[in-house]
Amino acid sequence: MKPINFSWHYLDLASQMADLKDDHYRQLLALSTIIELLVEKGVLTPEEISDKAADMEAELDRQLLL
Which domain of life does the UniProt lineage start with (predicted)? Predict the structure, then answer.
């Protein structure tokens, strides 16, 4: 039986985490850009966005407690 080389496993895992971090950054940047454009164009206000985020968080909390 061939022994498992854990150092390669950890290196691969670290690489995958770095890729996820990069993907997360790009998604957050895209979302932030869209929000900024919607506010600049007067489609939404920062207060509307904040209120909706609070509503969605409260709903998620409510669902998790069921």
Answer: Bacteria
